[in-house]
Every structure is written in structure tokens, then in C-alpha cells.
Amino acid sequence: MLVSAKEMLDKAREGKYAVGQFNINNLEWTKAILLTAQECNSPVILGVSEGAGKYMTGFKTVAEMVKAMDESLGITVPVALHLDHGSYEGCYKCIKAGFTSIMFDGSHFPIEENIAKTTELVNVAHNLGLSIEAEVGAIGGEEDGVIGKGECADPNECKMIADLGVDFLAAGIGNIHGKYPANWEGLSFETLAAVNEKVGDMPLVLHGGTGIPDDQIKKAISLGVAKINVNTECQLVFQEATRAYIEAGKDLQGKGFDPRKLLAPGFEAIKAKVKEKMELFGSVNKA
Ligand code: 13P
Questions:
Q1: Pocket of ligand 1, beta carbon within 6 A
Q2: How many independent structural domains does the chain possess?
């Protein structure tokens, strides 16, 4: 059964470990992540971006597939189905489709509008038993080939958004999506400590989990991070494994590749990567 992410993240924050959010793009990724969570006896969050939702023909398809797969694989660990970086309209679509958690990214709205929309969505989500994440301080990443520096959140603004009743908060602390540039300065633990101090027990979220050194991940967890998002790293291992399979020339005597066999090495690579992250984040045996 799919659950809200609130309880698993409150427990993680309390127990000083983090739950991984792994983004899904298709059936194989979903299956790999669910099976690994079960094998590791770990709670897990399946993240769905608006783009991935569109690719999979809509959020309804995603929710129905995840629910059915969770049941048919006999998954018993807590699984949350979460909208990643949702728009206002996207949040409503996911609520309707049967997601159990949403992220409203209203950072591009003027602050009054962001507050009004977040307050409204907190009420709607909580009335239906869903959890909700908000973001303060833009999380950088590659745009038109330029890698933007991750912005650091204002701790007072974090407190203001936390007080609207969101369940967990993504605060920018110099983290970015995708690969980190060679001259990246690392996470700003000064900002994280200040945010943590302001928001009390609220679980904090670290986006851009790919490429952050293990010691920085552990330090972030010790300062209140209870959810870590990973996407690019799974894409990289999937690509590598698929390429190796093609280069090995394992086609059907010139008739092409059996799609199920073609995707199998990538599937195994994602399983291994997710297990590695669950061990690093400390969520193994925390279901
Ligand atoms: P990466 O792609 O850098 O792993 O970040 C994932 C993420 O934060 C999704 O919201």
C-alpha cells in the first residue's frame, strides 16, 4: 500500500538517517527501486517529475502502475509516490491521480502568491492524507549549458514557509541538480545549521544527491536532512550498463535486440545503485 511520506520522514529525522527519493521514468526503474527497497527492508520515495509524468502518458498512468506493481510484487515496506518539483496545476493533477505526496515549487512566484498557494495546497493535501514538500532558495543546475551555482536559502524565509504547515522542506544549501562542476565549493553547512535551528524538528530535504561526497551526505543527515533525492546517478549507471550490452553485440542474430534483455543490465545497475545509496543514507532495516 502506498503511504504519505510524513511518518517515514519524521522517523528518519528522529533516528538520524535519510530516506532516498529515487526518480522513476518507466516500468523498469519502478520495479528496480521497489524490489531493492523490499530487499533492503527500507522505506522509499518514488519521485516523479512533471516531464516523467508526461512521458508515461500522465500521472494517472503512473499512479495506477505503481499501485498495481507494489501489490503484485508483494511489497510491504512503506512506499510514497511523490510529485517532484510540482507546479500548482501539477499538484492538483497528482492529488486527483492518487499520489500520496506532492512537492509544490512556488519559488518563482512573488512571495505573497507563493504563501497563498502553498497554504491552500497544504490544506488540500492534509485533508486527503497526503504529505507536502516546499522549496526555499533555488536549487541550481544546468541550463543552456551553463551550470548555475546553487543558491543558499534565507533561514527566516525557511521558517516562514515551514510555519505554513508543510511536512518537509527543501532548502538550497549550494546543492545543484546533475553533475557538480569541478570547482564546486561543497554544501554550505553554515546555511544548513542556521535553517535547522529555525525550523525545529522539520525533516529537511537535500536535492541534487548525485555526486555529493559521502562525508558531506553524512554531515547533512546529522544536521536534519531526512530525505535525499537521487536521479542523475541512476541515469548514468543505466546508460553505462545499456551501452556495454549493445557494444557486446548481444543482438538476435542481426534481427535487433530483445527489449526485455536490452534493459536487463540497466535494471540490475539501478538496483545496485539504489542499494548503495540506502546503505549510505542509513535507511536499511528501517521499514
Ligand atoms: P540529481 O539528478 O542531481 O541526482 O538530483 C535529483 C533531484 O534532486 C530530483 O529532485
A1: 23, 47, 84-85, 177-178, 207-210, 229-233
A2: 1
